[in-house]
Amino acid sequence: MSSVEYHYPVIGRKGTGGIFDRLPIQTLQKDQPYQFALFILAFSAIQQRSNAPHIEPASTFMEIASIHGKPYVEWAGDRNKDTSADYNAKDKKDTQPLPPRFGGYCNHGSVVFPNWHRPYVMLVEQSIGNIAEQLARDIETNNPGEKGVWTKAAKELRFPYWDWADKDVPENGLPPVLYEDKVEIMAAGNKTQTVDNPLSFFSYVGGIPADFTDETSGSTTAYFSKWKRTYRYADSTPDPKGSNIDLLQEALKAGANDLRLRVAHLFVVNDDENSAIAWDEFSNHTAESRREIDFKNRGSLEGVHDTVHNLLGGNGHMSDPDYAGFDPIFYLHHANVDRLLALWEWCYPEYWMESGYKHGDNQYPWIQAQGTYAQVYNEQLLPDGPLQPFRTEQGGYWTSSQSRYLDEQGYPKYYSFPEFEGIKVDKAATSVEERVAARKRVQVYYGFDPQTKAKRLASHTWKHLPVPSKEDPAVPSDHTVIPHYRTFIVHVRLLEHAYNRSYSFQLHHKGNAHSSPQLVGTITVFARPDHSPCKACAVRRETGSVIRGMIPIPPELINSIIKSHGGAESGVSFNQTLAHIKGEFVGKLVDPTGLDLAGAEGGQETTQVPQHRATSRRVTPIEIALVSAAVAEHVEDKDRPVYLCDWQHHDGIFNGGWQANHKDSE
Q1: Can you tell me the distance from the alpha carbon of 625 to that of 492, in angstroms, rounded to the nearest whole number?
Q2: Which of 99, 101, 443, 625 could cross-link 94 (Cys pair, CB 3.0–4.6 Å)?
Q3: Do residues 525 and 547 make contact, with C-beta atoms less than 8 angstroms apart?
């Protein structure tokens, strides 16, 4: 509660003459030198790195970054005399339950996850844009010959994104502009200058916030209370020399193909699904509407987002939700999350959170189970509910309904994204057919193309894989099933607060005669720690919230496993192939630093882990199961998206149990 009422509205780039695209950061740097120069200079200015024009206190980077997690304080742009932001670090109702109520504003693990982050990125876009316009006017005043050049660039500037699932990431990893400490930009007079790069790290202004605490995992410590700037993959020391980009690049490149396939599967949602439940599964990693019997899973936008946080952070700020907002790369990451949201809502405009969901005749509300700085535990979430602390120009809070859509039917946001696979997200599709065809192109771009894969693979080795007949009610009447082909997925359910910090499940392939050992995929639990000493909390932790995810298994890997065991010609059965697939997998639980917490061997013949070496119930994954589906294609139009049907649950992969490899798993 504040003694002074003050609201700083989030209006984005209103008043700049139109809707302009958020560009890829590489495109902004290469093709828009004036915009890029202003972006770098303005970002440096709001970080208060240098002398700059007057900056509204609520729009400084320090204030904006503080919204997401720590410090748990009221944002300067939403000062209220009432108690709408009622988190109190001294109140037991907020600090003693486990997990304790989240003291940041951010909504994670709920249907409003993507909605809340949209005005958040608009806020940093607005702040940088306003400063860019001031800088442009000053440059032109001192350089009359360039009048109109810089101010035009400033008005068209929108916050860039980095597509971490793009085709070049497995090979090239993180682009240099996102980690090099210096960057070359355009200067007046058609010259260039080299300046500090505000995208590489942020140094705290006014000192390190008082509630920052060090977090130790094994022998590695993230010295959040001592680090005066942000780091990625830092050494375990209070004074690291810098971020370890080599480690970051290694992890990112190893995980990039998995990210691509998981993004592709976000667009595999069929046309005939329940609106609210489809939105729930897409929007967040908790999937509140899912039941024990609901094993079908295409993954979630938040789930992919979680893994990117882990890949970029390591022993650093991006791996912890309390501190992630202080790393400048956070906003380029979330600008891409917002781009994927824009593509998805363009493709699926009929799917939405609604006011809740139904199973049978029962109606259930959406909730924010853990609360936030502005929301109590289990507060109901509605389409017209507030997305605090972001105010509109009219004075009320942004709502999920207002955050929806970038086209003319949406509340004004003044930005778009470049055309992608025929989709221009600020222009609504003119027909269902246009949306459907675009979905297929997005799937293929990100690596999901079962029609092509089925033709390329040695199909005779797959002939024992069962598929439904065309007459099967699971197959749409205008579709036919691709013969002898199934797509395989690993369904993952993990306890959110198992390790009292972020951690990941990694699926590894052991390798065989036709394939080298490799990381297949990762599901990350992006969680904040809890330092409560309460012993009863451990019991509540065991029955706490569950994170759902999926790892698509590349068909080339399935093919190598089938071939290694002789294929259909050897007389192998489908059940034997399922056992072979499971038997070639290894599971690991690791923390963001790479610490090996627990491991498991796949397959039916695996020796049971002795009880004295097994993981405790509080950390053991709830489910790691193999799932498959048949693939049906349209009879006449092969350019339509495939239809996944005949979903089958093939039981757990790691039936021998999990071995504790660290004391935190015991």
Answers
A1: 7
A2: 101
A3: yes
pLDDT band at 538 (very low <50, low <70, confident <90, very high): very low
Contact at 8 Å (CB) between 653 and 587? yes
pLDDT digits (tens, 9 = 90+) for 227-248: 999 999 999 999 999 999 999 9
Count of positions (residues) in the chain: 666
Calpha distance 664→662 (Å, rounded) = 5
Q: What is the distance between the alpha carbons of residues 630 and 644, in angstroms, rounded to a whole number?
A: 6
Beta bridge partners of 203: 229
Reduce the secondary structure of 531-578 to three states and give it as a string: CCCCCHHHHHHHCCCEEEEEEECCHHHHHHHHHHCCCHHHCCCHHHHH
Taking only the tens place, the pLDDT of each residue in 128-175 is: 999 999 999 999 999 999 999 999 999 999 999 999 999 999 999 999
Q: Distance between CA atoms of 374 and 102, rounded to whole angstroms?
A: 9
CA-to-CA dists, residue 571 to 463, 504, 564, 635, angstroms: 10, 38, 13, 31
Phi-psi map region of 536: left, alpha, beta (phi>0 left; psi -120 to 50 alpha) = alpha
Least confident of 197-206, 376-385, 391-400, 570-579: 376-385
Judged against a pLDDT cut of 70, whether residue 623 lies above it is answered with yes
To 10 degrees, the CA torsion angle through 384, 389, 390, 396?
50
539 vs 396: which has the higher pLDDT: 396
Q: Which helix (H) or strand (E) holds 220?
A: strand 220-222
Q: 89 φ, ψ to 5°? A: -65, -15
Q: Please, which residues have CB within 8 angstroms of residue 230's CB and are 6 or more apart in sequence?
A: 201, 202, 316, 317, 323, 326, 327, 328
